[in-house]
Amino acid sequence: MTCTVRIASPLRSYTGGATTVSSSGSTLGEVLAALEERCPGIRFRMIDEQDRIRPHVRLFVNTSEAQELTAAVADGDTVHLICALSGG
Amino acid sequence: MADTLWIGTRKGLFALRALDGRRRWKLAGPHFLGHIIHHVVQDPREPRVLLLGARTGHLGPTVMRSVDRGRSWQEASAPPAFRRVESDEPARAVQRVFWLTPGHGGESGTWYAGSSPAGLFRSSDGGERWQPVAGFNDHPMRPRWAALGTPDGEFLHSILVDPRDARHLYIAISIGGVFESTDGGQSWAPLNEGCAADFLPDPDAPFGHDPHCVVQHPARPDRLYQQNHCGIYRLDRPAHRWQRIGRSMPRKVGDVGFPIVVHPTDPDRLWVLPMDGRTVWPRTSVDGRPAVYTSADAGRSWRRLDRGLPRSNAWLTVLRQGMCTDAHARTGLYFGTTAGEVWGSTNGGESWRCLVRHLPEIYSVTYAI
């Protein structure tokens, strides 16, 4: 399964500035694992050591927010990595 | 190399470099603009190496490494992280890499990191890959030792490595207390006897204290000083009971603060920066009149040092990593405030001047050669 991952600006230091990256996998966890292979370090900034999505990160598969890394990803889907900052 | 003050702030990293024998200072940066920099530390075994603990408002915590005195930085490939939990036991995740300490002089490349929530981590490869120190992180008493953390989590800091023995370690947890290991971190014991904990139901509890900063004198490693939430203390090992040396501070000023620093060579000389710990704990300069206090007799007596500092209406806060000395014979002393000012003295605190202002909220000021 090939998908497109849209990269939020705080994470683009890991993608060489790219706003979209192609990845693969049938679940969100697999997509992020493949992304980590290509962009080392990016996963831990979004997902903690207990595989929980960090509080200021939101992950969407197309227009549906994913609560777990087991969320399904289909061929041609777009995964959105969104960073939700609060405070000044 | 020039003296450098590395300034970690809530919005990035700055370097303040001394010119003309510390008469002028030049600001460089920001590096990592927008990143939260908790601590920046030079490796005394290999001075070209620097490590910093960072995160951003959005993203998880990490460690950045420089092997060229801060000209370029690379991210650790395996930042500090707790052991993955498979059962239903509490699952902890590092929120901040709050503290960094180089390992023993004979263990090249070894580093320790302290986190919030309280965790201890070790690297054997110069900070590239980090492993949890299971002897502390999985200690059966750890949940009780650090049971009183605030919603921000409890902070593990003041990781001290005995220069005579790589296996002899001290750590401090705010809130939790001071702990000691003599076997390289495999086992730990509380070391809080004599410290007040007047906020606890049991003021004589063996742990649950709130050390704000603990330092070990490099020339006399058996001497520890502690700035605690409840006073200033000294401990001369092998004794186990801390002595409250803050009792000799002026009563109107009190002996509450965050940082405490020692003279590089004189074990009897130290400096603190008192803050207001009355009522709801403003944690600002007492009565708006900032002052450093120094002792030349291991805390038996104290002297106020405020020449050049604002005389009134200066409500400064200096955090626990926000004060340091340098390595000069005429000791330089520096502190950074949460209002973004760095103040410096090149005569042991006798007189002060503002070196830079308008920086973001300062979390740490550390000296590098």
The amount of helix of chain B comes to: under 10%
**Strand order within the widest beta sheet of chain B:** 3-2-1-28
Strand content of chain A: 25-35%
Mean pLDDT of chain B: 96
Detail the poorly predicted runs of chain A.
none
The helix content of chain A, as a percent range, equals 10-25%
Uncertain parts of chain B: none
* Rg of chain A: 12 Å
Structural class by SSE content of chain A: alpha+beta
* Separation, N- and C-terminal Cα atoms of chain A: 40 Å
Q: Give a short account of the largest sheet of chain A.
A: 5 strands, mixed
Described by the principal axes of the CA atoms, the overall outline of chain B is globular
Describe this structure in words.
The complex is a heterodimer of chains A (88) and B (369). Chain A contains two helices and five strands. With 88 residues, chain A is an alpha+beta fold. A five-stranded mixed β-sheet of chain A has the order 2-1-5-3-4, with helices on one face. In chain A, strand 3 and strand 4 form a beta hairpin. The longest helix of chain A is centred in the middle third of the chain and has 11 residues, at 28-38. Chain A is globular, with a radius of gyration of 12 Å. By secondary structure, chain B is mostly beta strands. Chain B contains two helices and 28 strands. In chain B, the strands form seven sheets. Chain B has a four-stranded antiparallel β-sheet with strand order 3-2-1-28, with no helix packed on it. A four-stranded antiparallel β-sheet of chain B has the order 4-5-6-7, with no helix packed on it. Chain B is globular and about 60 Å long.
